[in-house]
Amino acid sequence: LQTMRECLSSLADAPRDQLRTIKKLPVWVGDRWTRERPVYVLNNPLAEEKLAKSIPIWAPGGPTRPYESLIEPLGLKQLDITDARLVRANDAVASENLSAVFASAVDNLQADLATGDPETQSALLVSWDDLRGFEVRLIGSIELELENPSGATFIRFETRAWLDTGARTLY
Question: What is the C-alpha separation between 132 and 125, in angstroms, rounded?
């Protein structure tokens, strides 16, 4: 991690031609170092663990956010996990009871964060009112599908829960 921090500070003043050379540097992908590209970056540790079985995912040794300025110079490709689509979404059954419980849990979380961690409370990417209105739908297993950035078929992976902000639904 210290090496990465030093790399970041060096990049701030580096000329363009030097930035091109770091694309050839090896990066850690969880079980090995690789110079091959593409290597992908996710900001979702749960999805990273699942997708690393199918595609090379950069593993910088901690959260990727502090190292975002290295993504482009290293020639890495950002994947947006929100592009994933629930397989068999039509099989999911709405639950009014769980939707009400979820709305109450959102209220509790908002109040708790407002007093204990206001920075996190204000950093939510979905408004609290929108989140409170999400529907809870039950499904036997949650299998997601993400377009394979390498151009092949889709990548499928299972998860225990999925918040689909486009559909305003928690599965």
Answer: 13
pTM: 0.72
d(CA 43, CA 102): 24
Q: Can you tell me the distance from the alpha carbon of 13 to that of 33, in angstroms, rounded to the nearest whole number?
A: 26
3-class SS of residue 81: helix
Spatial distance between the Cα atoms of 71 and 75, rounded to a whole number of angstroms: 6
Residue 66's Cβ-side half-sphere holds a number of Cα atoms within 13 Å equal to 14
Positive/negative CA dihedral, 86, 89, 95, 96: positive
Report pLDDT digits (tens) over 29-67. Answer: 989 999 999 999 987 877 888 888 888 999 988 888 878
